[in-house]
Amino acid sequence: MNETNQAKKEVFRIEDDVSSRISTAQVIVSLSSAVRQLIDNSLDASAQCIVLEEKFAEIRAKNSGYESVEVIDDGTGIDAGSFESLCRPHSTSKLKGIDDFSTLSTLGFRGEALNALCAIASLTIITRSRSATLGTKLRFDHCGRIVDQSPVARSIGTTVVVENLFETLPVRRKEFEKTAKRDFGRVLTAIQCFALSRPEVKFICSNVIAGKKSQPICTPGKVGVREVVINLFGGRADKNKMVDVVRCVPTEDIALMHGVDPKNTSAYVDIEFTGFVSSCEHGYGRSSTDRQFIYVNQRPVDYSKICRVINEVYQQYNRSQYPTLVLYINVPAAERINTHITNETYEKSSTDAAVNNTEIDAPLASTSSDSRPIKERTPKKAGKLMNLSRKDSVFMEKMERTMDEEEPSTSATASTRKEPTLEGAITLSQCVEQSTTFMRTQQLVC
């Protein structure tokens, strides 16, 4: 019976609409991933702008994105000759051959996002290029084909409208209805991430719920990173309390640890680090790592190794909190940054070697009221031990008298012996030594 069933099994080619549905469902997995892909396209278009004018990217949502989400930009727009292939699978203007990977500078390049959005939502694009006198409104079906085209008034740039996200996936659509507000919070985090990578671009995000409009994000544009941090995170992110990150040349031990030839300085000399961390004063840190942003060639990435290094150094001065971190890493364009389909993962041994010599220890110490790491400061119990209350003064006299009787009374010993310190900070070794003496003396008195 089993042999008969196995003999009848054949390999069939999956139909195009089925294979498309399977693949596109993995490209856009949430509202935030859809918005990320559209912002990538907007920033790529704006980066090609030569005219000196304010760049902006606006994101409008209705019902936290459950009804619709729009991404509007004033980039270069789309030429009429590209309309037919605009939302077709694997269609892009950002690379043509495999050799283009070595000089790739755009955020997107796979040509999958718009086609994936067509497959799972209703997509409308309104665009006008610099060569056109009017804009064009395009509506697409679920296969990425144009079903309606009409002229409209629009300034130069592009608007992408995504309605009823996941409408072709009923189960995911139902789940999205329950999680829309939470997913919109992730959209805000993604926009913050983009705003910090491009402080010269103006980002606006609005949301309309039950007819009431809110605007949770509105960056000024044409400013520095520190001003954007203040705009996004408020007064506690005081730009005067931000510590610059300084990169040092990796030592030989660190280079060997990461498999990099210490004599081959070209492996990490081309790697540049800039950025800052928040002051280690209590109140300027965070209870979690939710405000740590890493960029490689202006691309947001997930780089856990460097976050771990900086968190460890920061917590030497502020054990209960994590820093706000904004770090920009510039590597040669020939390096492949993307190792994951989400474009967010980055790993490189030569960069790890440079990371381990990233200097924030001394600058952080300058922001602390006590410039020593926590491990060298007086533990709380020891501090209490050396701060005896008034009712213990009798015992203190007994302790001192016993210590005088126990130790030799030679002048040399008397000149070198130090009395217990009752005021100010003491080192860890002094604390241990005095604590041991105290306990030993207590046994003698009792």
UniProtKB/TrEMBL annotation:
Region ranges (Disordered): 348-380, 400-421
UniProt xrefs under Pfam families: DNA_mis_repair, HATPase_c_3
Entry keyword annotation includes DNA damage: yes
Any one GO biological process: mismatch repair
InterPro entries listed in its UniProt record: DNA_mismatch_repair_CS (IPR014762), DNA_mismatch_S5_2-like (IPR013507), HATPase_C_sf (IPR036890), MutL/Mlh/PMS (IPR002099), MutL/Mlh/Pms-like (IPR038973), Ribosomal_Su5_D2-typ_SF (IPR020568), Ribsml_uS5_D2-typ_fold_subgr (IPR014721)
Residue ranges occupied by any DNA mismatch repair protein S5 domain in the UniProt entry: 254-347
Compositional bias ranges of the Polar residues kind: 351-371
SMART domains: DNA_mis_repair (SM01340)
One MF term in the entry's GO annotations: ATP hydrolysis activity
Key words of the record: DNA damage
Cellular component terms per the entry's GO annotation: MutLalpha complex
CDD domains xrefs: HATPase_MutL-MLH-PMS-like
Family, similarity comment: Belongs to the DNA mismatch repair MutL/HexB family.
Official protein name in the record: DNA mismatch repair protein S5 domain-containing protein
Organism: Cylicostephanus goldi
